[in-house]
Specification:
148 residues, elongated, 3-stranded antiparallel β-sheet, 4-stranded antiparallel β-sheet, 2 domains, mainly beta, SH3 type barrels, 9% helix
Amino acid sequence: MKHTLLLLVAALLSGSALALQTATLSNANLRVSPSTTARVLTVIPKGTTLQTGNCTTWCAVNYGGQQGYVSKSVLAFKPAPFPATTTPTGRPPTSGTYTNVDGQQIQRPVMSDMAPAGASAHCRDGSYSFSTHRRGTCSHHGGVEQWL
């Protein structure tokens, strides 16, 4: 029953709008459950592109028609498309904001080669967050890679 529930969650995540694109850094074991002792379904070759939902230490994926789990440590998260950090006038975009729990308007995460002014965290997908609270920072971007 637990295995069935985990596969159902994996199926929902793989079709989710929150899917993140990843690539395997090395040959990766696709396992039946999120554990190094779980049975290996197949080996995913190095460089294979996969779609995954939010991950902890394991990511639910679908590969070759099989649902399973891959260790996050063998995945590289590819940058998702985000608005440019500046407009053609050289100013930050004004429409890319959200209201945080304090009622403040906060700039949405952006992709950039360098940390933009005011960024608070570098996310695992390569974007920069401007969050004023640690809870939930980079939650839809693979988690926090580094606090700034």
